[in-house]
C-alpha cells in the first residue's frame, strides 16, 4: 500500500514539473517579440543590429543636432560621448526633451539611422535612466549632478 502512494506522488510531481516547464516555454515564446534590449550609441555603432530588431537606445541629445522638419518630423543625434547615432522621429516630443538632455528611444536601426517610434525624456531636472548613466560612465562622459 505504501509503495502505491509513493508511486502516485512521484507521478504527480513529474506531471507538475512538465506542466511548469511547458507553461514557462509558452510564456517565453509569447513574449519573444515584446522584449526590448537597451543599447548605447557606441554599441550600435560597433555592431549594428538587424533592421527587424526593435530595441531601445539612450544617451544625450547632441548639442546643435536637433532639427524640426515639416509637421511633426524631427531629426537629431543621440550620443554617449563615444559615438553618435542619427535619430528620426515623427510625433510629439515630451516637454522636457531638448539638446544636451537625456533621452531613451524605442525603434529600429534602418540603414545608418535609428527610426524611433517612441521617445522618452527625463521626467524632472535630476533624473537620468540607469542604462543611460551606465553607458555615459562607460564612455567617460558622465558628470554627476549634470
Low-confidence region ranges: none
* Major β-sheet profile: 5 strands, mixed, barrel
Number of strands: 7
User: Which architecture of the largest domain would the CATH scheme give at its second level?
Assistant: Beta Barrel
Helix content: 25-40%
The chain-level structural class is alpha+beta
The CATH class name of the largest domain reads: Mainly Beta
CATH topology of the largest domain: OB fold (Dihydrolipoamide Acetyltransferase, E2P)
Residue fraction in strands: 25-35%
Domain module tally? 2
The whole-angstrom Rg is: 23 Å
Number of helices: 3
Write out the strand line-up for the largest beta sheet, numbering strands in chain order.
Answer: 2-4-5-7-6
Tell me, rounded to a whole number, the average pLDDT.
84
Element string (H = helix, E = strand): HEHEEEEEEH
User: For this entry, what is the oligomeric state of its chains?
Assistant: single chain
Name the CATH superfamily classification of the largest domain.
Nucleic acid-binding proteins
Shape: elongated
Distance between the termini: 73 Å
Organism: Jannaschia seosinensis
Function: Heme chaperone required for the biogenesis of c-type cytochromes. Transiently binds heme delivered by CcmC and transfers the heme to apo-cytochromes in a process facilitated by CcmF and CcmH.
GO cellular component, one term: plasma membrane
Membrane topology: Single-pass type II membrane protein
Amino acid at each position: 500500500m505504501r509503495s502505491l502512494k509513493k508511486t502516485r506522488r512521484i507521478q504527480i510531481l513529474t506531471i507538475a514539473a512538465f506542466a511548469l516547464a511547458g507553461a514557462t516555454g509558452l510564456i517565453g515564446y509569447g513574449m519573444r517579440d515584446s522584449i526590448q534590449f537597451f543599447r548605447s550609441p557606441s554599441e550600435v555603432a560597433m555592431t549594428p543590429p538587424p533592421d527587424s530588431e526593435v530595441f531601445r537606445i539612450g544617451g544625450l541629445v547632441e548639442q546643435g543636432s536637433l532639427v524640426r522638419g515639416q509637421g511633426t518630423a524631427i531629426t537629431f543625434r543621440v550620443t554617449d560621448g563615444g559615438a553618435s547615432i542619427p535619430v528620426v522621429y515623427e510625433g510629439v516630443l515630451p516637454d522636457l526633451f531638448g539638446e544636451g538632455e537625456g533621452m531613451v528611444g524605442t525603434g529600429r536601426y534602418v540603414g545608418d539611422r535609428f527610426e524611433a517610434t517612441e521617445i522618452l525624456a527625463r521626467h524632472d531636472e535630476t533624473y537620468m535612466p540607469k542604462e543611460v548613466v551606465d553607458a555615459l560612465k562607460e564612455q567617460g562622459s558622465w558628470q554627476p549632478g549634470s
